[in-house]
Structure to design on (262 residues):
């Protein structure tokens, strides 16, 4: 089993060192992990003050150094270098440059902000967006689509993060969702099964099981992620989805898992 979505103290809103997470993975029988700190976004207004949101630019060298120390400390554990990169069109040049020089194994694409909304308005708390829920879903899905089209990323993180209880995306946006799944397949990207929603009020994975079935029908590769923000969350809920045909990454290249291994 592997876990490709882990946040640590470098994200400022998560806790624990990389070694804490690696130790938890070994104890839980996980054979490979990928750290995915939130990418620095030095020009984004939400990141003032940035210390509450994500890794700072000046943290990156320290992240890489701690990663190498953790690899040496846990030689039997696969430890990949990743990043969770917010798609924000106004920062495309920065994203391309940072990702290109980062030497990453895996780059997750996330949409936490929508360009037409207030700059500090997170997608999972759209209290100040003067739009109907259907229009909010439209805005979010359009942002996801443009991020995929950028070609900067390897996998789509927590695809239906925008959803609220009682308003599943497929109920009103099925055609749009199917179109995005087709786009992902054409792009050669994968999609994440993110189990963190089961720790929250929504009480279901991102994406929901009905969307996950559509992803499987399309033959889109999958990656597993607990979206851990503490060592205790490493591997959370992944046992329940271990039957899925997950892929792995090396140097941003997708590789198939050995038969019988997820």
């Amino acid at each position: 089993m592997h876990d490709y979505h882990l946040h640590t103290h470098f994200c400022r809103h998560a806790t624990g060192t990389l070694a804490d997470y690696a130790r938890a993975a070994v104890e839980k029988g996980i054979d490979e992990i990928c750290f995915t700190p939130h990418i620095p976004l030095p020009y984004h207004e939400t990141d003032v003050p940035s210390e509450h949101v994500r890794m700072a630019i000046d943290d990156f060298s320290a992240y890489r150094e701690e990663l190498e120390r953790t690899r040496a400390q846990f030689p039997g554990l696969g430890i990949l270098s990743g990043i969770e990169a917010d798609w924000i069109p106004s920062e495309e040049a920065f994203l391309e440059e940072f990702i290109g020089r980062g030497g990453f194994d895996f780059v997750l694409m996330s949409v936490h902000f929508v360009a037409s909304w207030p700059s500090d308005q997170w997608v999972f708390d759209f209290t100040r967006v003067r739009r109907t829920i259907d229009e909010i879903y439209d805005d979010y899905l359009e942002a996801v689509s443009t991020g995929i089209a950028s070609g900067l990323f390897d996998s789509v993180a927590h695809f239906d993060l925008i959803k609220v209880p009682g308003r599943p995306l497929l109920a009103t946006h099925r055609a749009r969702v199917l179109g995005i799944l087709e786009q992902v397949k054409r792009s050669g990207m994968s999609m994440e099964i993110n189990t963190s929603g089961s720790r929250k009020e929504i009480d279901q994975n991102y994406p929901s099981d009905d969307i996950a079935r559509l992803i499987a029908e399309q033959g889109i590769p999958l990656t597993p992620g607990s979206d851990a923000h503490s060592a205790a969350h490493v591997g959370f809920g992944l046992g329940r989805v271990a039957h899925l045909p997950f892929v792995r990454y090396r140097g941003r290249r997708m590789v198939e898992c050995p038969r019988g291994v997820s």
The chain has six helices and nine strands.
